[in-house]
Amino acid sequence: TLAANFDLGRGSTFAWNMSANENLQTFRVRDDRSSDGDGSSWDGTFKTTIFGTKVESGLSRKRDFIRPGSSLPNENVIKNFDGKMERELSKKFKARLLWEVRLRQQFFDGEPDKIQDRDELKVRFDTGLTYTPGGKWSATIGYIREDTRRVEVNELRAGETNDEENHSVSIGITYRMSDMTQLTQIYYIQASYPTFDFQPNRNDLNATQRIVTNVTSQITPKVKLSLNHNFNLIDSGPFVFSPDGARVFRRSSRAYRQDLRSRVEYKINSWLSMFAEERLFRNDNVTEATGDRSISRNLDLEQGFRVERQLGGGVRVIADGKYVRSSTCLLY
Q: Residue 122's pLDDT is what?
């Protein structure tokens, strides 16, 4: 491993890392599980500030080759270019932009009909704006766009070649009700469109609406209460392209998922704490064509403890244990 850091002046820095490795794994009885291989990687990171905007960008490459005893030798190569920009627009507004371009290639050695060479290119952009009017609460709105192109090089697997388009919009609010209690709620809308080059009948849409609510309260210096509720509404089904290029969606199923958790922690002293947690999960699945609905409910109850203590001579003891009870109910 080789690492170097450079101070370029005026708040700019550059870091460089390189590494190489070899590995060998052998089994005396099951020699078919033996393997050997090697790998190498490098990455560089540049940081600076331009007109009040913090900029960080990285470039990296990683290569791993493995020769397993029971399957084809293969090589994985990952090239990545990512970065982020952050800027305070005013005392109340802060903006961010993150990006990533990632290329993964996999190569196999062997008979042509067994080779599973594939390429995957992912491009991702993540933008967000945070508004903080005061010390009590803040709000954040974000948008993520991710496009993935998967190509199967072997013509026998060409049917798996596809483009996947993902969109996500989120709105989150954090409210500090008091010095001890905080409420956070985030609303997501997500949509995923995989489009297959040679199998249009597999084109599918998954649309998700999700609301996540968290409440934490330090009731006393020794007692902490946490509540979490997660609601998901998931629509899925095939889509086709109309003559004008628009997607026409036919919903085939709808799922409702709710997850409610409550947890109480009691800190007996500096090294011993106890907790009790309850989780209720409900899953409803509806088939649009028939109207059939299946329901499953699961209840988990946990009680436990945790010990974390520093002893003399640099010895640290960490131990935990818990008792779990679970019940499941299926309804049709």
A: 98
